[in-house]
Design brief:
Helices cover 47% and strands 9% of the residues. It is α/β, with parallel strands linked by helices. It has a single domain (24-236), classed as 3-Layer(aba) Sandwich (Rossmann fold). Strand 4 (148-152), helix 8 and strand 5 (191-192) form a beta-alpha-beta unit.
Length: 242
Amino acid sequence: MTKLFKFASVLLCCSSFAVAQPLGFLHKGNTLLFQGDSITDGGRQRTGSDYNHIMGQDYAYILAAEIGSRYPERGLIFVNRGISGDRVIELAARWQKDTLDLKPNLLSILVGINDTLGRGPRSETIEEYERTYDKLLADTISALPGTRIVLGEPFLLPVGKHKDDYATEMVEVKKRQAVVERLAARYHLPIVLYQDAFDAARAKAPADHWSWDGVHPTYAGHGLMAQEWLRTVDAFWPSDTK
């Protein structure tokens, strides 16, 4: 084996995306749906079929690119229905049209930071957040029993206006994170621990490398989210899952 070949092999093995072939349980023509708020929205184009824009510019786009290139023969379909500013109650209001009617084979949900940071008429209690989220999951499992569901925990980084009161705000964020953890346990679903991933990443680069305002990731932050999503889902449902 030449030195060049050895070097190339090391690079391939060390690549965060190349280590495994995730989502091997998905079949030809399956649909992957990403739901949530602005972090998932990513400035996506609402109409048309321009694949450079309809997935947005975020972790969902990165996942669609990676998984789509890894399984070209499966013709997987990727759909983004994240809407900026949404809380769980806004998701509930459009759940039938934007989720159940689409009949996804895999549904990924990330919601909670707007629920946490909302003020005035946009505020909601932890109990309301959990009750509404719980109903969304129960309704989805009932209507689409074969659909695999992935939950993402809301997260916050000490950047911009969230830097000075970060500890206080994190108390509320952690309450929503705990709700997502309970729901994941209740329904036996994988949970992507984005907060842990970002906290660990801050040992390598400061928080503003990963998020430009504490809520919305930078390109590096979205890349980190995609890596953590793949790692979590692949571990929860091995490629040989039937």
